[in-house]
Amino acid sequence: MGKLVPVMGQVRVDGQPLTTGQVIFQPDAEKGNTLKHEPRGPIDSQGNYVPATTGKKGVVPGWYKVTVIATEPFDKDKPYVIPKSLIPLRYSDPRTSELAIQVVENAAPGAYDLSLRSGDLPQK
Description:
Blueprint: E1 9-13, E2 16-17, E3 22-27, E4 40-42, E5 48-49, E6 52-53, E7 56-57, E8 62-69, E9 99-103, E10 114-116
Parallel strand pairs: 1-10
Antiparallel strand pairs: 1-2, 1-5, 3-4, 3-8, 6-7, 8-9
C-alpha cells in the first residue's frame, strides 16, 4: 500500500446534504489503480465524509470508482425487511454510479464533493 493522502468531501442529493450513509472508493483498474483496499467512510449529519484505508484516515492517490450507500434505519422489530434506499440504487454499484474521483496530493477544496440526483427514485 502506498502513502495515504487526506480526503474529505460532502455528499449532496439535489443540492441538499445527504445526512446518513457511507462512501466507498473502489480502485479503478481500468485507469491503472490495482490496489486491493477499498477506502470508505461514514457520512455525517452535515453530509461530510472522511474515508479511511485499513483503519487509517486517508486514501492512496489514484483513480477510484465511487459508490454511495444510504438506507432508512434498520428496524430491529422487522429483522427480515431490507431497509429502503434513500438514494437511487445505481449509486450503490460501481458499474452504474458514474461517480469517479482521482485522489491527488494537495487537492483543491471541494475536489472530493459528490453530487447525486434523486430523479430516478421510485415514487412512494
